[in-house]
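Q: Here's a chain of 307 amino acids. Please give me its 3D structure as tokens.
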Amino acid sequence: MPVPGVPIFLNRSRGAQNNTMKLPTISIASHRVTRLIIGGNPYSGISHRSAAASKAMIDYYTTHQIMADLRQAEENGINTVLARADRHIMRVLNEYWNTGGTIQWIAQTPKDTEYADLDEYLQMIARYKPISIYHHGGTTDKLYVEGRLDSLHESLKHIRDLGCAVGLGTHDPLILKHCYTEGYDVDFYVCALYNHTRHRELYLPDDRSAAFAAIQAIPLPIIAIKVLAAGRNEPREALQLALENIKPTDAMAVGMYTQFQPDQIHQNAITVAELIRKSENEPNCRTGSYGHSGSRRSLRCDGARRS
């Protein structure tokens, strides 16, 4: 008989997994990460829609429901969650792992207004054993505008000394280019497809094109976020466009909200697996090659092709 308040997890040998194709993985440092990562914004009530929508997410995502969604992600072949390293999320993840969950965690530092000392906060995050920690994109963008981005070097070193893979987030392709050119010591970047720092909740096609050009030009692994423009883009079309314009060594983190579409995680996993398999087996009409075979490495960071 089910015990009240304890999540009921499906047996991995049954259910959705039987109908799910295997998701390919990429390397982030020594870790294998599925190219589709489940994003944690809904768990923290970050809708990028309205205050009412954010409150609805908070009401829906109890500890029980977050754990159920994470288990569903694992059953559908997703092996990593990208989520905020706030005290609430860390407590939920700890409980999830204690009940047998094995999903990997890529930890995003909170906004700079949520801690007094970043290095001390990094030590607390590391106690929960994320595979990696990356610096929050909005705060990165703020430091860049203020001319203080170089202050991150010591914190990035601290992440590495803590034994975690090192990441750096941004919403601005120019900052992505700057950090790579200046040789910031990171294992991967997290790049938004829309410039939320500059344009807030405007999701402009030109922003996405600029992000793709920068992502294609930089050989390090990049996790693309805001792929669905907080639910504004049609999922299959947006996922396909992203996969066609990021490298095969890149991944996507996608927030999935199951309140009104309980099988959303399953459907997204199937869609991404199908699209990747199709791209590997059919000629790419834009490159004349099969799949993604590195043909976009010739792009400069400004999007122009090298001769």
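Q: Can you summarize the key feature?
A: The beta strands are 25-28, 31-34, 36-39, 80-84, 104-108, 132-135, 165-170, 188-192, 222-225, 251-255.
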